[in-house]
Sequence to fold (368 residues):
Amino acid sequence: ILNWIVVFQLDPENTGFIAVENFTSLVEHHELQLDPSKLDMLFALVQSNEEGQVCYQELIELMSSKRSSSFRRAIANGRRTLQREILLDETGLGVYKRFVRYVAYEILPCETDRRWYFHQNRLCPPPVFMAIITIVQIIVFMCYGIMLNKWVLQTYQPDFMKSPLVYHPGHRAQVWRFFSYMFMHVGLEQLGFNALLQLMIGVPLEMVHGILRISLLYMAGVVAGSLTVSITDMRAPVVGGSGGVYALCSAHLANVVMNWAGMRCPYKLLRMILALVCMSSEVGRAVWLRFSPPLPSSGPQPSFMAHLSGAVVGISMGLLILRSYEESLQKQCSWWVIVFSFITFLLFAIFWNIFAYELLGVQIPPPP
Fold:
């Protein structure tokens, strides 16, 4: 319907541009029901054009709740600002809308983006990915905790390391282990740390940026974690979802730092310091367990390299994702550079796992 209106009424000469007078007349005479926030942004977009016109493609993206980078630049540089109060001044909001506003100020650095997200949010689809991952991790941990009657340092139990979910270098031909290790955890302390961050940071990120982008970032951190361990710490197993968690946290913290002036989350400096201290402490704990195990063990303890590789994924791929709110990643050259680099790493890691262990004569501990 919108295509027909544009061709026959708004753009009869098929120039690709629509005069604001034509669009305003259509809105008034045909009583089109448009979201007020969209109408405000449309007029702001028109004001950024010297001839008072809007590109047809920009109009289509606006009406379909999609925004391109050129639209974002036009809004940012337009001579007319959006005629709306800032979200913090809005009153009479319900519990859910107040939570959406809280998420907007936690995640997004630009007031225009925050208003756009606040008015476009429909909770469909809901942020189920991080919730499902966390629930499954808790269920798996409870099952092994009951079976082993042990809730901390579970990796010292031989039956724990026999799990088909744990990544072990002796079982690296079982490809699913490069993913499934994220459901196993050393103990209650690691599970609690990861679950807390997944819910406090992962869920808001998923609400704003969508399930596809956040699940891609999380799983990229998980896969990079196990593959990095197979290259740099070839005798060690891996457990825990720290690769994915550190990808999310590092991307979010880097985005906050790079947009420090625009972020409006309260106590951001204190929270940044607290997050860095907690993440560093978790890495330190993993290093200690790897090289100075407190209990006798039959083999090497889980590696800490998954934490570091997850952080690298977050700072590279994750930062670009978070900075591209409502923008197409496929149209950005930097996105394809990162994708090419990640695929190159995957191919290198695959060949390394196939040939390097025998060529280097690595003595792998017998699989449990």
Remarks:
- The radius of gyration is 25 Å.
